[in-house]
Structure formats: structure tokens, C-alpha cells
Amino acid sequence: MSNAVVNGLAGAGGGIIAQIITYPLQTVNTRQQTERVAKKGVNSPLPRHPSTTLLQIFEVIKNEGLGGLYSGLKPSLLGTAASQGVYYYFYQVFKNKAEAVAAKNMRKGRGDGSVGMFSWLVVAALAGSLNVLLTNPIWVLVTRMQTHTQAERKIMEAKKENLLKKARENTLIGTLQEKFAELESMKPQPYGTFDAACEVYAESGIRGFWKGIIPTLIMVCNPSIQFMIYETSLKHLKTTRGENKKAARSVTALEVFLLGALAKLGATVSTYPLLVVKSRLQAKQEIGGNISQRYSGTLDAIMKMVHHEGLSSFYKGMSTKIVQSVVAASVLFMVKEELVKASTVLISKRRKLCPIW
């Protein structure tokens, strides 16, 4: 079994475990990113729902139960396994080629045989681009499922505001209380992966499954920065302990956890605005007369966010994302490295017992 396959499978396993542990934070963070809040001085009907992460978690549990925190978990786990598997497989393939080129250059008298920071960026960017193009439809569905309840609540608010407007204009047939009661009595329809897929297709056709692809492709620099910091830090740590194999194996799971946390922190802070734009584009577009809540594309989303909500809207929920991303990346790196070590030992023992294998 090649090291690319081993790393791909280990990455998928680590990603699944990290996703299960941090998923409630991811759900809340997606809702924070897609919540529209008008900036001061702007005459806009955008509702204000200020809330801390902890309060929002309690609010979700109160209104939707614990299951609300895990909306879209099944496609998310599929997406995580696919994303991490695809990413780590191609990352290892390109990494092997980069290391081979560096070794070849050293034999020719150029360089010391190590892969430079720019090469790590290129390797991570190539792997990330392939990952995004192949798995974006899954994440569109996950975002829809995570924000479905929030979108339905806003649709209900828009309908109530429309009733109030009709009442003021004396065009409402029936009493306002009756109409409000009628709205409140409407039960939410079941909403699963298939429903989300049908909704996306109905809105935008096949293209809808690649909504947010532009900011997502730009965000390829996130794992690029993350892996540049991680690989550089890991290389420095190993170098300070010596060049022998025993020293290389002396990096502990805790140290990998901390290096993963440091790498993800730097990457998340620098690319977070793109993540917010991506979530806004992939979430259900608001229904009603308020065009400030509907985006036709990446540039339109950016312009409307700046005009109606201000620059601070690009950093909504960042503290939640930092906690979720850092913990998830740390767990992922730690579990992945341990799985790779375990796989290497098992393969080595298997080869000793059966040399032909």
C-alpha cells in the first residue's frame, strides 16, 4: 500500500473523528455567518439577533433539541471523509514529487535537498483545488441543512411583516390575529439531504451545487498556509532533535496537536472573510422583498455585505470558528499521524511475516 493511500485513509479517519467532536460548534458558526444584521445608520429591515456562541447553542437546543446541533451531520461526515481522503491523497502524491525534485536538485548541486516554503504552498494549493472541485456539492447541502431552520424563521418573519403592512394599508382580509395564528400553526416540513438537493436544483439547477466555488477556490490558500506553518514547524522541531530516525519518531501526539492548532489558527484568521462569503452564497437565499438578503454572486455578496452590514459582517462568528477549527485541526493531525504510524507498523510486520505481500 502506497504512503499516499495510507495518508489519504488516515486523513479521512482523523477528519471524521474531529468532525463529530466539533460539529455543534460548526453548526452554530454557520448560522452566525449567515445571520444578517444591519449596521447602524442603515435604513434596513434586517432583523437583529445578537447572541454569544453559548447562548445560541442553548437557543438551538431549546427550539430544536440536541438534534438541531447536528443538522446535516450525515452528509457532513461523508464530505469530511471524501475531502480529507482526497486532500491527503493528492497532498502526499504532490509532496512525494516535490521531495523527489528537491533530492534531484541536491544531486545536481542545487539546494540542500529540502522542500522550500513556496513548494509546500504549491503542493497544498494543488491538492486543495482538486478537493474543492470534487466535493463542493456535498458542502452546499451541509450548509443548507445547517441553516434551514434559521432560513424558515426568517421567511416566517417576512410573512408577518407583510401581514402588518397589509393591515396598515387596510388590504388585509380577516383579522390580523387570525392570520398570525394561521402562520404559527404551520408545522415545519421534514428536511433531509434529498430535500436540500431538490431545493438547490430548483433554485439554480446543476450550477447551484457549485455555489460559492470562487471564494472556496480562493480559500485554498487556507490549507496552504496551514500546511506551510505545520510542515515548517514540524521540520524545525525534528531538526532541533537531530537527523536520525529515532529523533524523527520522537515527536509526540501532544506536540503534533499543538503544531496543528498553531497552523490552523494562523490560516483561519487570515482567510475568514472568504468563509463568510462562501456560507452566505451556499445558504438558502432569503424569500421576500428585501434584495439586500439575496446574492447573485461573489461580488454582489461582498458589495451588499459592505453596504448593508459593514466590514464587521465579514468576521461574524470568528471566535467560534477559531475554537472549532483549531480543535478540529489539532485532533485531525494527531489522529492522522497516529493512524499513519500504526499503519506503518502493521504493514512492516505483515511484510516480515509474508515477504511477497
From TrEMBL:
Keywords: Membrane, Repeat, Transmembrane, Transmembrane helix, Transport. Gene3D superfamilies: Mitochondrial carrier domain (1.50.40.10). Solcar repeats lie at residues 2-97, 115-236, 251-342. GO terms for cellular component: membrane. It is a multi-pass membrane protein. It is found in: Membrane. Pfam families: Mito_carr (PF00153). The chain crosses the membrane at residues 114-134. Belongs to the mitochondrial carrier (TC 2.A.29) family. This is Peroxisomal nicotinamide adenine dinucleotide carrier-like. It comes from Cinchona calisaya.
